[in-house]
Amino acid sequence: VLAVLRQVLSLLGMCVALAISGLIIQMLLYVGEAIEGMTSNFVVQNVAPLLVYIVVVGLLQRVYEHLAEWLTLQEGHLMWPTHLRSLTMKKALFNLINMHGWFLYLAFWKQDFDYLHEQLMIFFTVKQLIGNCTEVLVPRAVSAVGRTPKGFDRQATPSSVSPAAIEAHWMLQEPNIGDDYLEVAGLFAAAIWYCPVFPLGLLFALLHAVFE
Fold first, then answer.
1. Per-residue pLDDT tens over the stretch 168-208
2. Which residues contact 24 (CB under 8 A, 6 or more apart)?
3. Confidence of residue 149 (pLDDT cuts 50, 70, 90)
C-alpha cells in the first residue's frame, strides 16, 4: 500500500508540472497578444514571448530538479541504481515538459507552423548562444583570470603541494555531466520532433553539442 501511495505521489507531482507548463503557455499567449497590440514590429512580436519563455524555463528548471529529487526520495528506493534510474527518468520527463510545452502547443493546438518555424529558429540560435556563453565562455574567462586555489600547481608533485591547497581544490564543485546530457537529449529531441518544420534544427543542435 505504501509503495502505491508513493507512486501516486509521483504521478501527482508530474501532473503539477504539466499544470505549471499550461499556465506558462497561457502567460506567453497573453504577453504575445499584449505586445502585438502595442507594436507592429515583427522582431519584437516574435522575440519577446520566446525570451520570456527562456527566462521562465530557466527558473522553473531548478524547481523541477528539486521536485524530481524530492519525489524520488519519497519513493524510498533501497538500491542506488533503482533510485538513480527513477531520478533520471523524472528529470528527463520534467525537462521535456518544461522545454517543449510551448512548441507542442504551437504545433498541435494552434497549428501555426509559420510561427512555430520562427520560434524554433530563435530557440536554436538565441537560446543556445546564451547557454554557450554562460556555460562555456564565462567559465573559460574565469579560469583564464585565475581561479585555481592559491598554492596549487597542476604540474607539481604530490609532495610539493600544501595540504591547504589540496583541500581547497578538493572542495571545488564537480561538473554536473548528467544535466548536460539531459540538455543535449532535449535539444536533439526538439530537432527531431520538429524536423519537418525546421530542418536546420539538427545542424544547430550538432553545432551546440560540439561547441559545448
1. 555 555 555 666 777 777 888 888 989 889 999 888 888 87
2. 53, 56, 57, 60, 101, 102
3. very low
Domain boundary among 83, 111, 139: 111
* Grid cell at residue 78: 533501497
Same-domain status, 128 and 98: no
- CA-nearest of 186, 199, 104, 174 to 209 is 186
| Residue 128 near residue 204 (C-beta atoms within 8 A) | yes
Asked if 22 and 101 count as a contact pair (C-beta separation under 8 A), the reply is yes
CB-CB contact of 71 with 89 (8 Å): no
Distance of alpha carbon 189 from alpha carbon 204, whole angstroms: 12
Query: Which domain covers residue 1, as residue numbers?
Result: 1-111
**DSSP 8-class letter at 146:** -
C-alpha–C-alpha distance, residues 140 and 136, integer Å: 6
Contacts of 60 (CB under 8 A, 6+ apart): 20, 24, 98
Query: b vs e for 143-155, b when ≥16 Cβ sit within 10 Å of the residue's Cβ?
Result: eeeeeebeebeee
| Residue predicted with more confidence, 65 or 167 | 65
84's grid cell: 538513480
